[in-house]
Fold each of these.
Amino acid sequence: MGKYFCIQLKRLLRLLLPVLLVTAVLFGCLMVIYDTVSKLNDESEVTTKFQIGVVGTASDFYLQMGLKAISSIDSSRFSVELVEMEETQAESAMRRGKITAFVVFPEGFLDAAFRGDIIPLKFVCAAGSVGLVSMITDEFTQIVETMLIEAQRGIYGVEDALHSLGQSGSQVVNDLSIEYAEFVFNRGRMYRTSTLGAFDGMGMQGYLATGLCTVLILLICLVFSPMMVRGDHALTRMLCAQGRSLTGLVLCDFGVYMLGLLGIAGVVLAYLVFWMEASVTGMMLLKALPVLLGLGAMSFLMYELCSNLISGVLLQFFAAVVLCFVSGCIYPITFFPEAVQKLAAYLPTAMAREQIAHCILQTHDVVNTAALLGYGCVFLVCGVLSRRFKIAGARG
Amino acid sequence: MQIEIKHLAKNFKSKQVLRDICLKAESGTCIGILGANGSGKSTFLSILAGIQSCDAGSFLCGGTDLLENTKKRAELVGYVPQGTPLIEELSARDNLRLWYDKKAMEQELDDGVLELLGIGDFLNVTVSKMSGGMKKRLSIGCAMAKKPPILLLDEPTAALDLSCKQSIAAYLRHYKQSGGLLLLTTHDVLELELCDAWYIIRDGVLVPFTYDGDLQKLVESL
């Protein structure tokens, strides 16, 4: 069996250079994606505001004052900005994507409000919002809509009630209004709490890095296709006829494959440590091993199931993309429906991403590590069974 | 040396591929197994090579059931499957090293089976750059590493040109004359001429057949 292992190792060494080159290209591409998304994320967190157009307030001194007050007490004003404009301007701006939505204060709104009548505000946002950004935007604009309507109702309703009782409650009304507006607007802390939960406490960039690491590992597995896809298993058949153990042969193949993966991972790591001055400890490397084992075994099983190069490459690629997407490696998992989130938690790719997060955060999760190793063992056993079925179950 | 295959049977779920295969053969002979596609020829050889299990039967050689005795079977039986049992990225020399010790390989290349197969001519050529004939010769060379007295060949010259077929047939003839026992499955006339006895697998049973060069009769028998 040693001879077979050495021969396979020699074969691996022959393929290592092209594998390294392709890995370098993949790594470069993922770094560019990471850099771009990180910058976008930074910009969106710091400078981007959801701009809401406000129409019909230009001629009304009190409304303008109210808007200024809202702006100054809005704790989430870093993400919402109210911009006064004409209705035609607002429509045009929304069509061009300059503003997210706009609110129209109908004429006589304030006079009616003073009388205790509330004329509904007209709230306009883009139809057919299907993307994630639109979902967030809708949420923001709904909050603003609610805030504007309810704040106005609250303020003028109380004012009207006090007035009908022959009392002047301007101070109370003002206090209530401010308190109410603070309540409506003070959602920044809630938003932050949700963000922390979404990204495993490591921020968007860290989350993205762990996800892309998982994608990279699976794509590196794909690069080994020319070595791993076996057409007719004639060599295995002949070796078995010579009395070699089929399980031993499969384990040798897997061992060589893992060495290849470790070698490539080592090169990528060396690049991160020496060129990008990343801090890597021995414990982090130890924790990363189950990731390579779990994902490597999964990829190995897929190679065992394929009978030609094209099907091998396609299966690896689509499995990598789909599993990474569903596991939240490409897109944050918290943006998926709850059912998908629950399912994703059991996927090896999600576990691998989580394990990488533990490596970076230097935390522990024994259950996750054990599950990943368990997955690795199950995939390996399935790989042996698949080969056995192909060799012993073939009809001719 | 004599081999005797007794009442060999193999089922794939509900389908009985081999029902009652019985065969006797002496060393220095070549047995040709014919049959339609899917009749069970390759399964038959796979069972004899120990790759697949059978549901019943025995493969006796010198009183030992080779289906039970893996070590003895590996010693006595060489097997060349269909396809290419070679590592495409490596040279012929590297492939041979999987089967031969370095010293034995050099010896065989100088004056032995590898020399007879003409492998020395392309020893350093990568398998992926070899012709079909070279690959087949190399495969046989690998299977002959332990100098087995029984050689099982699954369609050894399928998809090869006439010159390659002749060169492989010449080696097999030499193997037979030097006391080897050949058991081959084939669809090829040239290989049929090499055989001393012919059998057709029909309905899971080996049916003896006399080949006298009449192809029409052969086709009708299948």
Note: The mean pLDDT of chain B is 86.
Amino acid sequence: MPKRTDLNKILVIGSGPIIIGQAAEFDYSGTQACQALKEEGYEVILANSNPATIMTDYTFADEVYMEPLTVEFMTKIIRKEQPDAILPTLGGQTGLNLAMELSKTTILEDYGVELLGTRMEAIEQAEDRAMFRDLMHELKQPVPESTIVSTVDAAAAFAQEIGYPVIVRPAYTMGGTGGGMCDNEKELREITRNGLSLSPVDQCLIEKNIAGFKEVEYEVMRDKSDHAIVVCNMENFDPVGIHTGDSIVVAPSQTLSDREYQMLRNASLKIIRALGIEGGCNVQLALDPDSFQYYVIEVNPRVSRSSALASKATGYPIAKLAAKIAVGLTLDEIKNPVTGTTYACFEPALDYVVTKIPRWPFDKFAKGNRTLGTQMKATGEIMAIGRNFEESLLKGVRSLEGKTEELYLASLADLPDDVIDQRLVKADDERIFVLAEALRRNRTLDELHELTGIDLFFLNKLKKLMDLELVIQTEGLTYQPIKKAKQLGFSDAQLARLIGTDIDEVYNYRMEHQITPVYKMVDTCAGEFASETPYYYSSYEDENESVISDRKKVLVIGSGPIRIGQGVEFDYATVHSVLALKEMGYEAIIMNNNPETVSTDFSVSDKLYFEPLSLEDVMHVIELEKPEGVIVQFGGQTAINLVDGLNRRGVKILGTTMEAINETEDRDLFEQLLNRLEIAKPGGESVTSVEEAVQTARNIGYPVVVRPSYVLGGRAMEIVYGEEELLSYMEETVKDYSDHPILVDKYLTGMEIEVDAISDGETVVIPGIMEHIERAGVHSGDSMAVYPSQRISKELKQQCVDATVKIARELNMQGLINIQFVVNADTAYVIEVNPRASRTVPFLSKITGITMANLATKAILGKKLTDLGYNTGVAGCPDGVYVKVPVFSFEKLRSVDTTLGPEMKSTGEVIGYDRTLEKALYKGMTAAGLKIPVEGSVLLTVADKDKEEMLGIARTFHELGFQLYATIGTADAIQSAGIPVKTVSKVGATEMNIIDIIQSGKVQFVVNTLTKGQQSRSDGFRIRRTAVEHGIACLTSLDTANAIVEVIDSMSFTARAIGNREVTQT
Amino acid sequence: MSLKQLVLEDGSYFVGEGFGSDSESIGEIVFNTGMTGYQEIISDPSYCGQIVTFTYPLVGNYGINRDDFESVDPAILGVVVKEHCDTPSNFRSEETLDQFLEAKDIPGIAGIDTRKLTKIIRRHGTMKAMITSMDRPVSEVLEILNQTKLPIDQVSQVSTIKPYVVPGRGCRIVLMDFGMKHGILRELTKRDCHVTVVPYDTTAQEIDRLKPDGIMLTNGPGDPKNVPEAIETIKELIGQVPVFGICLGHQLIALASGADTAKMKFGHRGSNQPVKDLKNGKTYITSQNHGYSVSRESLEATDLELTQTSLNDESVEGLAHRLHPVFSVQYHPESSPGPEDTENLFDVFLENIQADKKQQKEEATCLNAQI
């Protein structure tokens, strides 16, 4: 059926900021949807508050609203744009929830706006636990015994009836937020209470535990003619019990016979048909490993994380087709974009094995609760493709960019057996390594199966790998075993460890003996039809399918999995670099391993290698393609970390040279550089021993900032106020970083300024100078950033500009550069120089209209910025005020301290922009999910050093009509300033203590700053966690608190103006 | 096991590891793109005379069970895989693929680049191939291949020798066995049919004596023109009782009705083949295994109506007789392996039978009235 002609303008809802459970996959699906709709000739309006995304570029939509994704703002957009329809099914749970909320108002009716993709009733049927169960009963599809509760007591009563363990699933939350498995009533009560408060409809499902069943997912599509197909099925490595987002997932299923496969396929198709979904849908099922008994666990009536994975795993672009289906096209008339000759109405056949491994943030949150359960904790994921399971798994392991490139973690080798056993029973983020370790200790497969419930098929494969390790250990560098090992995915690093040599020797041996991979195509049809998709993966096979053109080529290294500190903004830069290369006539080749991203969409680049980003994998592609050079500036620290190795192998790094990169990263060279250029920097030194650290700190004076060199996102960075603290830091951290020196710097407190620039070595274009709301000490990724700067003098600005230009010219930088300054006593001190794309590139590009990654790519390839129409200095200054507000995922990460500091903790960001700072902040905070009430209560509990400063905040809150609560010390300070306050007792006190106040929901804000000392630290921790778990904003920086007070202040005086405000557009 | 080689008629050869039986084998090499269902494929008699390459690289993961056979004795001549699993995992698994092939004297070869092989077959079309030990030089194998004439009597090899009955209380079906997959029988008995399975060369008279309500023509191996006796029988049956043909049975209906068939370059073999129903405009995902197809142009002069085509290459996938309750599909509605989306065709067949019975009754009454 042809596309609909009664629609002209379609509003697409994006998914907002990156949070755990909703990452870059929705940038991919949204971008595809926008493209597909434009391709069909529709006018596309996009709403998404996330400035780091590619979809919010004007290239992909006709109008872009980076406004908060709330009913309030969506209503304004609808009134202004009057679209014919809304497409909410590609914006994750956020999009779906927003559509549901909108449909409860009259706005859609008033303006005759139609919902495309999935009917509202179907969304409700899939999302509402009770309705879903009824539908499944009607369809005769088995669901685990369960009940819906809205009180904790009801939950306890039901669990009593069906017996423990049970699973709690809050209604309408994503990524299993607030859910969990409970072994006893105490756990049940706690989790249910939390779940009820997180569920927007105050409902939880209490469900019979079917742990131990195989977990299988089907990605299905349906169109309005009722064609329904399976794009991909997937099997979880772990049985039911671990959230699928936290599971290693394999596609296609490995242990299902055709009968089982078809049985579950039938169930999935029956469900999508019953729901009447027009688009994509994800069905999660549990299958008894010992019978044909299965259960339907969950249905997502929308494009999901799994569909992004399925799209990359098969080559079949689900989101793109879902968008086309939404406007009336049917699968049998849409061409399969991969083959170009066959149709989309078919089911992809794979001739390879795909493994997805989650990327968890526990390298940063070592003290967080690392146990895996029904609540997702991963921030991102990688995917790897191989011709056998082992290869795909091991390629996946080295794609993670963790501490290891193989199934070996040195830290596990020393653990006693019983700890290994415990960790097998209670899965955590290191599960796969723990399994390998257990196998090395000769645990039998049956024992492991007993402890973990993991299918023997997978355990056997692991065993095979461990057995081969032993062979390698005895035989060393000999042809057959090495070849076998490479076929099974062993990395050179693993071989080097086993043989006791280094990766270069292994690599050279392989080159000599021609043990090198070939590249196979991902073509959706297992070779049945000729395809020209430029989408490849490596394997140690016979035939190479990647044909090398005679065009000039450039290889761009992507940024790997989404993690804290390296998010979707690096994919944004990568994609723009690729597009710029294509524009310049180069063959743009990309390597990346993140299935969620736009950069791994094969239609973006000329050639996509879906590969790990370790040195050997990158070298293999370089040896084959022989590009002019490699661009490493856009792939975050991932790509930068490759520079050394690539350089060693004689590969040309395009743009800023390795020497220049070293000068910014090597402590001593960096210091010399700044001294030479006479640029101010905080005093400090790099040290390699505790004694040196103590001496240095004494010399420069406390407080000092300590951190290991060469780290990303401020990992293990701390501000230390005294010698005792320094000693304990060195003790805890130096052990881990013995290879790298520790940097001890003077901690200058003051405003932080961030500059992004593009340089060709002569001309240095500065699109923006941003100031941070939070003073230095809070990681730049966790600070609110304001553009243009509001508080700094012209003179200071000039200091920043001068320093930037000087450094860029001195290092002959070609490409992007990011510099962070701290202002102290009217001087801007340089604290960090990053010779690469920064987190703020997309934010600034969108505000100023300067396509920074594009320009930088041109500069990297030798174009002069002056020829492109740019001169040295600050460029572009649009009207209005723009703020970037960080977004955290603390409610998903138990036991993680929420206090802001030098270590980055946010997972994503949103933008807010308007005519004034306060309005922009209001929008930004709202978009970040913060509720800003104009009246209510606030609880203050701050460290002694902050009491003075806190008084201003307390006073304004009071004047605005807020009731103040405070703990004793803080309350004293407030009272002596003549401000009324209610004193609450400290943590642990019997009556009405601070925790009770927070739990009872009496306060809307908690202002808490980090107190020193063991007891107060742990009290503070409890306060902060309690606030997070009850959805109450906890402000750990007085600067943030101040900003909020100012916003409330402005709202109180100009309350009417907010309501009438028009939505502005960029 | 020892190294083995797979040599193709066009001179390409692969070295791999032997598994299953150690015997040599010459057959037509084809590929199947299904990701599950190797047990059904291996035991599907339609593969008689063929060496099958599995494009999915891991075969044998869930072992071999006692339930999923499509015939008692596999007629397949060889199995080519990237990797076969010696540690299968599934609650129904009874033995490994290797053990099964060995027991059934079917040679297998593993460890070769099956994607490369598939592309060769795609480009050059299906051809003769041999799985053999490394002792023979490639030139010698090529010589053997050159001189080998592939058999044309596959149907007689796999059809039942004697008729037998699978009793039921519903419609009486005579099933002409050209190499039946058990799935077809299962679909009929599931619908309580009384099925008499007869050999491929049973005459129309013999069938008539069984007083069938309907005739089921099954799948089977090879070129439909190699079973002329069946074509004659079907000619006589059309117009007598409702007929339903699957795969080879479909091709035989076409030939019996005056249409023609032709060999395809590399055929359709897999579980993901889209077929468009020209009547309702819908497309179904079907399971297929055929190397021949009915020529579309040849239908013009016949009483056959084209009802379904392949969405991808528009080849003939379904036919219906304009005058009689006779219809057929090129694909496998009984699935096993593959999607079960078109299973309802068996219901259509039974509905045809009911309608036919009713009509006969009416005609009889009418006749009586006239008398």
Note: The domain at 3-150 of chain B is CATH 3.50.30.20 (Glucose Oxidase; domain 1).
